[in-house]
Write a structure and sequence with these properties.
The protein has one helix and 19 strands. It is an all-beta fold and 361 residues long. The longest helix is centred in the middle third of the chain and has 4 residues. It is globular and about 60 Å long.
């Protein structure tokens, strides 16, 4: 199983990926052990993000059967657990049928999820990888040396007659093209995410609404003798069908700019980011980037123009080939309220594929 290192997103989160690419061996049966242990402490005192601690693990063992050179069937369980929540455990099924040919991959069932989509932070918040990682639906992927393409439909909530929640699904695509030379590479991301709430069987009485967000930009990779410099610029355009969760003065079309200057070394990564948004909010995105906060429904905080500085420092480590980890420190300076907050986290990831026997060629 090979992870394409050319496309890692804005920050290098590859140490937290589970390599769910198509098995490259001819093993008939295989066992894939995946686990993520984490502790992330958010020292926040702000109306935009919760000050809390996430301490727990995710376990996702799967057995797989390679039916032929292009088709596999995989099944197992997904077991997330947060320490301090008592003896109650939640089990989720993990299963997929996967078709692969010449770099193109079609998946039905459990998706290659979370940070593996390589979405920009205004679209996908890092903590979603810890809190709501599992995704089910359909997915198409195409990964080559100079292109990464991911298209998916994640059905998050199925409803029945008189349900108390709305139907909810998310759909998105993440494309990135690479060009340039050995010492200077240029990446062009094109991303979109749609979130929909609706349905006709629920009892909520809430209107249906949809959020759409689109990202494009450019990322440069400049190879130096000891470092890689990576300036990254992205424009976000968002549209909401309904204003049900926005203040009345918010327009439906929203804009944001997200710029990062990244210094990447084999032993550490430093990133300085600046975000500017007008009326921007997307439920799945980084809450620090929202123009309006809903942590306190009685005392909404709203800024027409939202500005923040984000400074990140991360230290990756590797115990052995299949046991990797990451320590990350984040400083967030809110230019609107002139306040500094921070978070730190330690993440340990095990991702190992065990082959049992060989199939006949």
């Amino acid at each position: 199983m090979i992870l394409n290192q050319n496309f890692l997103g804005q920050l290098d989160n590859s140490k937290l990926f589970w390599d769910d690419s198509f098995p490259d061996s001819v093993s008939m049966f295989f066992f894939h052990y995946k686990s993520l242990n984490f502790i992330k402490n958010n020292e926040y005192d702000t109306p935009f993000a919760n000050g809390d601690t996430h301490f727990g693990w995710q376990l996702n063992p799967e057995f797989g059967l390679k039916l032929n050179q292009h088709l596999t069937a995989e099944a197992g369980i997904y077991l997330p657990y947060f320490f301090g929540t008592g003896p109650t455990w939640k089990f989720y099924p993990s299963f997929r049928i996967r078709l692969n040919t010449k770099g193109f991959e079609a998946i039905a069932g459990s998706l290659v999820n979370g940070l593996n989509h390589r979405l920009s932070e205004p679209l996908y918040e890092f903590e979603n990888h810890l809190l709501q990682r599992q995704e089910y639906g359909l997915q198409l992927r195409y990964i080559k040396k100079k292109i990464f393409a991911d298209l998916w439909l994640d059905w998050r909530n199925k409803i029945f007659l008189n349900d108390s929640r709305q139907e909810h699904f998310r759909s998105g695509y993440s494309l990135e093209f690479q060009t340039g030379y050995e010492k200077l590479k240029i990446y062009f991301p094109l991303q979109a995410l749609a979130l929909h709430y609706g349905g006709q069987l629920d009892t909520t009485g809430a209107p249906a609404y949809s959020d759409f967000a689109f990202v494009n930009g450019a990322k440069f990779s400049i190879a130096l003798p000891s470092f890689t410099l990576m300036p990254d610029f992205r424009l976000v355009v968002a549209y909401q069908q309904s204003d049900v969760f926005f203040l009345l003065q918010n327009p439906k079309v929203k804009f944001a700019y997200w710029a990062n200057f990244i210094l990447r070394h084999k032993n550490f990564e430093f990133a300085q980011g600046y975000f500017y948004g007008q009326h921007y909010r997307l439920e799945s995105g980084n809450p620090w980037m929202h123009s309006i906060s809903f942590l306190n429904s009685r005392n909404k905080v709203y800024f027409n123009k939202r500005q923040i500085l984000l400074t990140r420092f991360s230290l990756p480590f590797e115990v052995y080939t299949h046991f990797k980890g990451l320590f990350r420190l984040e400083l967030i300076y809110d230019l609107n309220i002139r306040q500094m907050d921070y978070s730190m986290g330690l993440f340990m990831n095990v991702d190992e594929l065990i082959r049992f026997n060989k199939a006949n060629r």
